[in-house]
Fold this protein.
Amino acid sequence: MPIFGEEFDPSAWDRLKMRLRRMSEGITPKMKQVMEDEAKFMLEEVQKNIHEVHLIRTGEYLGSWQYTSSRSGFDVWSDHPAAHRLEYGFVGTDALGRSYHDSPRPHLRPAVQATVNKFGKDMANGVQELWLQE
């Protein structure tokens, strides 16, 4: 009896095995490339957001943002001492006795959200691209 209205084609198993083998060989490099592309995208988003919340004076803060490869993928980060304060704000007195009431100026969190929204689609597209390769 035909399955799904068609006669069974034994060569379909061979084609499926070849396609799965090709995917297994290509999936790690493809996913690594997608993850690096996402890290670059997030870095660009952070830098764009820094301009939008007017955090550009000397360019030092903007230049402190970078992405690096890690065991888990890629990290987007800044080692600037004011990064946390600028992102989340600060109310209180610092170690030198100066009083602050700085409002948050989010630039990383919106970039993370934009990247998360894009990431799933890009991963799915990467897998589909591998699947459709001949």
Q: What stands out?
A: The mean pLDDT is 89. The longest strand covers residues 65-70. The chain has one domain: 27-132.
